[in-house]
Structure formats: structure tokens, C-alpha cells
Amino acid sequence: MGLIINIEKWGMPAAIGMATEGIKAKYNHGVGGGGFGAADMEIASKIDGAKVLAVIDEIEKVSPHLADWSLFAYSSPYWNALENRQRLFSHLLHDWAMTLAGEGVFIQERTFRRVETLVPLIAGGLALEQTSGADVSYHNSDLQYQPVATRSALIAALVEFDCKEKDNFSESFWKKRQRYYQNHWSAWQPHVESLRAQLISYDQLARTMFKKALENINGAY
Asked: Which one of 29, 51, 62, 95 is separated from 5 by 20 to 30 angstroms, measured CA to CA?
């Protein structure tokens, strides 16, 4: 149990946000008095945050990519290290490729490298959706999901990759490659959905492990 915050009742996203944001946030509003001053609350808040980070450390021992995803998606800005993001992206690409291989589909290097450029957009978009909620709209009386990482943004990333690969940044080449991906998006969409599904499975597994590890750590105090 937390000294200031009932972290055992918090979900993983809120707990990680609290732990990585530090004492600046007013999670302790209304708490104090009776000699329990600001300095005491500051120390207690740090201890509560340390418990949460200890849980992430326990997850990392078993499944580093789940710890990486948890911090990537829910930690405060600038908290997560670049190497952790790179490790997450690498693991995600490996799982994606191995899943396809298990289905008898083997990815060409040129396709792999292009999909690799989409991973930060897909992962970042899903992380925003997990914290702020997915955007939906009505179209022809149907409720439709609107991803943060839009099709146009993903196509732009693919076109930029092609421009760099060919060292051709002319407007005509950009439009040519843009039309290509627009006309052949049906070949890329399954890869995007597969990566999203893999990340969602990471998130579900991480939440389950977080809850169990937090219970174990609380039991040790």
C-alpha cells in the first residue's frame, strides 16, 4: 500500500505517470496536518513512486519488451531512454516478422526496412490513444475508429524513406511515390494492423504482470 497514494488501486498507466512525473504533481492534495508536513509528503511520494518503478524493474527481468512498452506509453515526457525505445521497436519488428513466418509469409528486406520506418508512428499513436482515448466518428450511421497514426502520415513516412533511399527529393518524385502507396495501400494496411495488434497484446500482458508484481511488492512491506 502507498504511503500517500493508494497505488494498489491505480491502473498501470496512472501509476507509471505518477512515478515518473515526480513530486511536482499534486497527487497529495488535502493530505497532511498533524505534523505530516510538505517535506514528509515529498519523501512519501518518492517512496510510492519508487515502488512503481520497482515493479517495472521486476517486469523487465522477465520480459524487457513489456517494461519498455510500459515506459514508452505511460511515462512522463523525456523519462524513457532512447535505447529502451530502440529495444522495444526491435522486439516488435522481430515478433511481427516471426508471426508472418509462422504463417508461411517471409518478408523481403526492402519491405522490412520500410515497415521499420512506420513503427515509431504506429507505437507513438497507440500510446497516445491508450492515455487519451481513441478517436471515433460516425460515417453512414456507423461508428468508425480514427487512428492517431493516420494513413496519410504513414504514407508520408514511406515516401520520405524512398526519397532518402534514392537521394531524390524533387516534388515530382514525392508525388509519384505518394500515388504509388495510395494505390497500393491494401498491401501495407495488414502490416500496420499486425503491428498494432502486437502492441495491444504487449499492453494487456504488461498490465497483468504489473498488477501481480505490485501485489508481491506490497506484500513484502
From this structure: 62
Q: Which burial class, exposed, middle or buried, applies to 33 when counting CB atoms under 10 A from its CB (0-12, 13-18, 19+)? A: exposed
As a whole number of Å, the CA-based R_g of the chain is 21
C-alpha 191: how far from chain center:
17
Query: Which tens digit of pLDDT belongs to each residue from 51-60?
Result: 899 999 999 9
Residues near 195 by beta carbon (within 8 Å), at least 6 away in sequence? 92, 96, 115, 118, 119, 122, 123
The pTM of the full predicted model, rounded to 2 decimals, is 0.84
Query: In whole angstroms, what is the distance from residue 102 CA to residue 84 CA?
Result: 27
The β-bridge partners of 139 are: 142
Tens of pLDDT along 145-192?
A: 678 899 999 999 999 999 999 999 999 999 999 999 999 999 999 999
Cα–Cα distance, 215 to 70 (Å, whole number): 17
- Residue 41 has which C-alpha cell? 509528503
Type of residue numbered 211: K
How far apart, in whole angstroms, are the C-alpha atoms of residue 124 and residue 137? 21
Q: 87: which 3 cell numbers?
A: 529495444
E-strand ranges in 114-186 read 135-139, 142-146
